[in-house]
Please model this.
Amino acid sequence: MKIVESKKIELTGELSKDKIDLYNHQFLKFVAALKASDKNAVNALISDKVKNIVSDQVIEKLVGGISFDRKTEVYKSGNQKLLDNETYPAIQYKYEDDKQNPPRDIITVIFENDGKILGVKPEYSK
Model:
């Protein structure tokens, strides 16, 4: 995945419900592929822009950063400007059982407009 250099990710705007549904569906398929260790499925869901940097180590790190036992829900959506000065749709997920505000653990997922995943950044409390 693309490394997002940012301590706190600030999303601008709000995505439409249709876009959130599309991207959420892609993210759930991605998590299922990670959980099943299905590298072909993971590759089918990520952007061509990041395929060359997504190694087994990156996938292992992601698997360690996402809890498969906890259900996620959309916390925030919007657009995120990356280092290439392009703006991409993004969704921040929280775990349903995390009742803190702001949530302790957040997974930020950056998408291309077509739903391909460009970056995933799990942030969890120590």
